């Protein structure tokens, strides 16, 4: 099934739009399925190709891009969506880490989670939804993992009664510090995100497997950078 992908792209001049369109066309994307706005810095592509492939095609032009959103090309409506931003004037970050995570409720039982985070150390990093969205003092006031069922910490792929609501597992950054991810989750719901925050941790989440130190609380995943939500 085709999807509609929206990218935030840093275009320095109108000629960048032509470069991007030419590159995407070389990848078999019809020009009628490519919509580029230099004024807003967005590229929208309708395709059945993976978002990572389209992102790589755009960046082959030497222009930096981030996946901003996605949805069905067939159905224009969903059951709700939320976006979390990290870095800049929005999400709190003590470093150069920045990016975006998008949540789309595609039906009553499934939420699609996807995004791009830059500036991470290579390797795995935990990703979780937290109880509070108060970033007035960095990540100090966002509380613990969102845990509506009062269960122990686990992995995103664990049974619904064996993980926190906000347990989303790990994302993996490549050698350039970029993590691109996309998965469906049956426990988190867009309605849960109001007044919350999401954190990307400095270490890998052991998902409660080691049973030592804070494994069953936060997976020993370390300090976090926080993202701010808007719907």
UniProtKB/TrEMBL annotation:
Listed Pfam families: HMA, Sod_Cu
Domain HMA stretches: 2-66
Cofactor(s) needed by this chain: Cu(2+)
GO biological process: superoxide metabolic process
InterPro entries cross-referenced by the UniProt entry: HMA_dom, HMA_dom_sf, SOD-like_Cu/Zn_dom_sf, SOD_Cu/Zn_/chaperone, SOD_Cu_Zn_dom
Signal sequence, renumbered to the chain: none
Molecular function per GO: copper ion binding
PROSITE patterns in the cross-refs: HMA_2
Annotated family: In the C-terminal section; belongs to the Cu-Zn superoxide dismutase family.
Record PANTHER family: SUPEROXIDE DISMUTASE CU-ZN -RELATED (PTHR10003)
Protein name: Superoxide dismutase copper chaperone
Upper lineage: Eukaryota, Metazoa, Ecdysozoa, Arthropoda, Hexapoda
């Amino acid at each position: 099934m085709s999807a509609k992908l929206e990218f935030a792209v840093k275009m320095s001049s109108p000629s960048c739009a032509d470069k991007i369109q030419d590159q995407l066309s070389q990848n078999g994307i019809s020009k009628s399925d490519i919509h580029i706005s230099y004024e807003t810095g967005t590229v929208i592509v309708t395709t059945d190709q993976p978002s990572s492939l389209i992102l790589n095609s755009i960046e082959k032009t030497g222009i930096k891009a981030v996946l901003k959103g996605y949805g069905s090309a067939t159905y224009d409506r969903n059951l709700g969506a939320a976006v979390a931003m990290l870095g800049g004037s929005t999400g709190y970050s003590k470093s150069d880490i920045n990016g975006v995570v998008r949540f789309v409720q595609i039906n009553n039982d499934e939420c699609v989670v996807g995004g791009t985070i830059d500036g991470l150390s290579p390797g795995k990093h935990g990703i979780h939804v937290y109880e509070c969205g108060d970033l007035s003092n960095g990540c100090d006031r966002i509380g613990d993992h969102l845990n509506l069922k009062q269960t122990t910490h686990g992995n995103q792929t664990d049974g619904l009664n064996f993980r926190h609501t906000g347990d989303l597992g790990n994302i993996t950054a490549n050698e350039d510090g970029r993590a691109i991810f996309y998965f469906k989750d049956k426990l988190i719901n867009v309605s849960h995100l109001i007044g919350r925050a999401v954190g990307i941790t400095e270490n890998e989440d052991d998902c409660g497997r080691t049973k030592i130190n804070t494994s069953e609380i936060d997976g020993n995943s370390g300090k976090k950078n926080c993202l701010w939500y808007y719907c």
